[in-house]
Amino acid sequence: MTKWTPRHEAPEPLEGNVVATITGGTIVWFVLFLVQLPFYRWYDEHGHLWWLWTCLAGGGLGLIGVWYVRARDAAIRGSRNGNESG
Fold it and tell me: Which domain holds residue 47?
């Protein structure tokens, strides 16, 4: 059995304004849902109703994502503050 070894070190993860990124994506999903809503009957008649529900699910999951990344950022800040004082 051959052991796999990496060729180089993995880069550090990119950190940016994650909350803004997730919020922007969530808004896009909700806008797509609202734009498609007037065509509900057409989607239903052509078997494409799942497009509408996919956008709504994306918006709903985005709200969960916003909550998650805000909690994550708060935990990271709390950890940094705890390490500096101790």
Answer: 19-85
